[in-house]
Amino acid sequence: MSIKFISDIHLSPERKDVTQSFSHYMKNRALEADALYILGDFFHIWIGDDAMEEWHYNITKLLREYVCTGRSLYVMSGNHDFCYGKKFIEETGCYLLDEPHVLCYQGQQVLLIHGDMLCTEDKSYQRYKKIIRNKLVIKLLLALPLSYRNKLANSISKKSKFQDNSEQIINDLLNIPDSEVIKLMNQYQVTTLIHGHTHRPNKHDIALGHNKIGTRYVLGDWNNYGWDITIQDNHIDLQKFDLSKL
Ligand SMILES: [Mn+2]
């Protein structure tokens, strides 16, 4: 049995190319494994299941077709798509994961997160996250009219630090301190961590203390290239592929 992981597809109607590539991925490459984990920021914006339009249904149908092959699909929220509800689950047939999630695979434990929780140098984002990801706050937000939620989502993305700040500041805000990784991996007693969010795909070895070495795998975002991680037996592979050639 093998498992694939992806994150940060940032699907949006404006990116027809990425949407098309994702469709190819689900019908080909994704079928090489028995299960697929999507670790957040799958959609660029998700303001509630009640905002689903034809374009969204085309995506949920793709996920449903994948599940209908007998494979399992797991979805974790990211900072762009944190309010999936019952309808999304029903349409896709996926399992929604809480964060962090410990995956048990052939006797190994693998810790899965979106990744934003490790960016602790961005203090204002961590304060915002605490509020916006509170279950009660999400419930209140979802009770607001759609038009208001749309305006809110637009103003949040316009105010994004990533548009106003220099590359250096963005780099600092997306930095993940080793101390946070060590703390989290030791708390969950794992030596393997997989996440996305930073759009900095890589594999990092890290000393966890007590002679233990951990490995942190970071998925990339989908733009001209796509990224996935495959676990099969004792092998974990991070791969980059040309989206135009899927
Ligand atoms: Mn993210």
Task: Give an account of the 3D structure.
It is a single chain. With 246 residues, this protein is of the alpha/beta class. 35% of the residues lie in helices and 26% in strands. It contains nine helices and eleven strands. A six-stranded mixed beta sheet has the order 4-3-2-1-10-11, with helices on one face. A five-stranded mixed beta sheet has the order 5-6-7-9-8, with helices on one face. The mean pLDDT is 93. The structure holds manganese (II) ion.
Unreliable stretches: none
* E-strand count: 11
CATH topology: Purple Acid Phosphatase, chain A, domain 2
Gyration radius (Cα, Å) is: 18 Å
What topology, given as strand order, has the largest sheet? 4-3-2-1-10-11
> Secondary-structure element sequence?
EHEHEHEEEHHHHHHEEEEE
Mean pLDDT: 93
- β-strand amount: 25-35%
Can you summarize the main beta sheet?
A: 6 strands, mixed
**Shape call:** globular
Structural class: alpha/beta
Looking at the overall shape, the CATH architecture is 4-Layer Sandwich
CATH superfamily placement: Metallo-dependent phosphatases
Helix tally equals 9
Counting structural domains, the number is 1
Q: Quickly name the level 1 CATH class.
A: Alpha Beta
Which percent range fits the helix content?
Answer: 25-40%
Chemical compounds bound to the protein: manganese (II) ion
End-to-end CA span: 23 Å
